[in-house]
């Protein structure tokens, strides 16, 4: 099963109306609604151009993308489109391989190999 301290529900296909102050991070960070209007048809309703969910060894982040207006505007005014990152994890303690289930399996195999090497070469 899932660890209740780390488990999350990730929901899509439900537009988040950031334009009205709605937050895509719900239930104290346990539920994420990541469909914020990537489709142009929803952007006037949501006020943004969607989300990207990032997850790596540093934790989970949600990036909100602003609407892309026109390449001409970027080229003429030098204004880059803006993306805003939100930290989902409260404490970003980097997760290492040894902290995962697979890491524990690998460590057990390493321990067995060390024991076999010790028995073979040191006895």
Automatic annotation (TrEMBL):
Enzyme class: hydrolase
Protein's UniProt keywords contain Kinase: no
Domain of life: Bacteria
A Gene Ontology biological process term: gluconeogenesis
Keywords: Hydrolase, Manganese
GO molecular function, one term: fructose 1,6-bisphosphate 1-phosphatase activity
EC number: 3.1.3.11
Protein name: Fructose-bisphosphatase class III
Organism annotation: Staphylococcus aureus
Lineage of producing organism: Bacteria, Bacillati, Bacillota, Bacilli, Bacillales
